[in-house]
Amino acid sequence: MKAVITSEEFYTEGGCNACQPFTMATYDVTFEDGTTKSLEELDIPSLIMALAQKNHWEQSYEEDDFDDVLIYQKADTKIAVKETPRKVTFQTKAEKQTFDKQNCDLTTVFTQVNTIATTLFHIEATDFEVRPLEK
User: I need a surface site. Which of 68, 71, 90, 126 has the fewest CB within 10 A?
Assistant: First the structure.
């Protein structure tokens, strides 16, 4: 499967007179069938969410001791996702994988996303391409 990631940067203000304007970026991923999903960030959890939604995985939340845990479920397969500010953990009954949440090297991010997608979600690997948004 192929996917193209585009981004757009724009200036915004914090909402008060004392706040300085700052730059924000938005990201979209478009799959080869034309389906487009928005990404919250260009990181592992956001890319996995887009792939899971595209492949009809249901999402819900469960509470653990202190946090909400995102649950992906399809048929009898259940994957729990726990995030900290720096790490993300994907866990099934049989397997647990933990990764740095963000990485400056997109090749590493895409490799890790494909590892999670193929081993835990049984989704085919995705060939990601990053393109600047055409204006």
Answer: 68
Q: Which residue has the higher pLDDT, 34 or 17?
A: 34
| Other C-beta atoms lying within 10 Å of the C-beta of residue 113 | 23
Token pair belonging to 5: 């990631």
Question: With a threshold of 0.85, does the pTM exceed it?
Answer: yes
- Give me the domain span that covers residue 96: 2-132
- Taking the C-alpha atoms of residue 133 and residue 135, their distance in angstroms, rounded to an integer, is 6
How many other CB atoms are there within 10 angstroms of residue 3's CB atom?
21
DSSP reduced 3-state for 84: coil
* Total domain count, the chain: 1
DSSP code, position 93 = S
Which class for 4: exposed (0-12), middle (13-18), buried (19 or more C-beta within 10 A)? middle
